[in-house]
């Protein structure tokens, strides 16, 4: 009889504990709120621009005709800022005829 009483006591204790734990509230935040809390990975030096390694307004001033050539490399978000900068420099060295002479120094190492 004593074993049955102890078993019933243990089972009821576990049941009560499970009910108390299941009553604790879980807060579910809307998806839009979660997105606003995520942090974007900052590139080295904080220099990240959406389309090119340099702001398009500034980049246009480097070229003789005042327009960014279609062959100029776009910013690859899967690469680091420094890697993107190196790619742009390599492109510029092979396309010096499109760049104003006063900006050639920007593409030297």
Polypeptide structure, described:
The protein is mostly helical and 109 residues long. The protein is built from 4 helices and no strands. 5% of the residues are buried. About 9% of the residues have low confidence.
Q: What's the short story on this structure?
A:
The chain is mainly α. The chain has helices at residues 2-22, 31-37, 56-60, 81-94.
Number of strands: 0
Terminal-residue CA separation:
89 Å
- Number of H- or I-type helical stretches: 4
Low-confidence stretches: 36-45
Overall helicity: 40-55%
Strand-residue fraction?
under 5%
Compute the average pLDDT.
76
Shape: rod-shaped
The profile of the biggest β sheet is: none
Order of helices and strands: HHHH
Which class best fits the helix and strand makeup?
mainly alpha
* C-alpha-based Rg, rounded: 31 Å
List keywords for this structure.
rod-shaped; 109 residues
Task: Give the helix/strand layout.
Blueprint: H1 2-22, H2 31-37, H3 56-60, H4 81-94
């Amino acid at each position: 009889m004593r074993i049955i009483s102890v078993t019933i006591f243990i089972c009821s204790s576990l049941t009560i504990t499970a009910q108390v734990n299941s009553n604790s509230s879980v807060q579910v935040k809307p998806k839009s709120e979660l997105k606003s809390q995520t942090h974007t990975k900052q590139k080295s030096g904080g220099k990240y621009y959406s389309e090119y390694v340099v702001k398009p307004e500034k980049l246009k001033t480097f070229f003789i005709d005042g327009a960014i050539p279609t062959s100029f490399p776009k910013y690859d978000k899967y690469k680091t800022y420094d890697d993107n900068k190196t790619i742009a420099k390599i492109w510029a060295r092979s396309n010096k005829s499109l760049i104003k002479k006063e900006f050639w120094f920007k593409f030297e190492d």
